[in-house]
Design a protein that fits this description.
Elements: H1 2-31, H2 39-61, H3 70-89, H4 98-106, H5 110-133, H6 146-207, H7 211-221, H8 226-233, H9 237-251, H10 256-270
């Protein structure tokens, strides 16, 4: 589980770098006049992007920080990035608020999903209120009174996000259940393949032994002592020791208990 989480962290970190590249391209287009955006706004976006996108990527990909809290930091950083973008560009960036929840969904962690939902809707509400006092682009939002800003701006957008969040939550829960159903079958398949490989190894091993050595080996992995094997085969204890020495040499091991644990179940199948 921790290994899977670390892999997701690395993939998300690479995704954050791609997003940062897109931010750089957008800022560049703004600076050359392709988009009609104030320069101070692009500087703010660039600074926030470095904090929320570059720092977590650096911690994961370069320093290899895999603490369990890292996923919460990534989600929180993306929520801050979304809130900043929204405060600067208002409804033009409203879809960005879905990104933290999508990232949380990759982990299939319900607790992280709820964290992303509560944090994101809070950031959305606060950032929309901020635009009511300091509108970077006043022509985009006609509402100026606090009541109108909340009633016609913040609440509808929060409800829209909640709808998207519930959809992602239901989809994630569905996939969680699918994995729970699939994994036991997958594990059973793996166990079956390992069992089949062990059986082939056991049969090949018997092929290397003479008939007498095979009789001694089968009794040995069945738990018989040297004395019991000698009585069973009507041989001397010294002869049995010699046979066992030859068997060990052919098998390349002297670990009797390991042989019993590994091959005893196959000898019982042949009884």
């Amino acid at each position: 589980m921790r290994k899977n989480e670390a892999e997701i962290n690395e993939n998300v970190a690479k995704g954050l770098l791609i997003v940062f590249s897109c931010v750089l391209l957008t800022v560049f287009l703004c600076w050359i006049g392709v988009f009609d955006v104030y320069v101070n706004m692009t500087v703010i976006i660039l600074g926030v992007s470095i904090i929320t996108l570059i720092i977590p990527s650096f911690l994961i990909l370069k320093i290899h920080v895999y603490h369990k809290s890292m996923k919460y930091y990534i989600v929180a950083a993306m929520a801050v990035m979304a809130g900043t973008s929204y405060a600067l560009f208002t409804f033009q960036a409203v879809l960005v608020f879905v990104v933290p929840t999508i990232i949380a969904a990759f982990y299939l962690d319900k607790k992280l999903l709820y964290f992303s939902g509560v944090l994101t809707v809070s950031v959305l509400f606060v950032s929309h209120i901020i635009t009511g006092f300091y509108m970077f682009q006043p022509w985009l939002e006609p509402f100026v009174g606090m009541k109108d800003i909340i009633q016609y701006g913040a609440l509808p957008r929060c409800l829209q996000f909640c709808g998207c969040f519930l959809l992602i939550l239901f989809m994630t829960e569905r996939y969680r259940k699918m994995f729970i159903q699939i994994l036991p079958e997958h594990n059973s398949k793996i166990v079956g393949e390992v069992e089949e490989e062990g059986k082939r190894e056991y049969e090949a091993l018997l092929g290397e032994l003479t008939e007498r050595e095979k009789s001694v080996f089968l009794l040995m992995i069945s738990g018989y002592t040297n004395m019991q094997i000698a009585d069973k085969l009507c041989l001397s204890n010294g002869t049995i020791k010699n046979y066992i020495s030859v068997i060990y040499e052919k098998l390349g091991t002297k670990e009797r208990n390991a042989l019993i644990l590994k091959y005893s179940r196959f000898s019982k199948e042949n009884d």
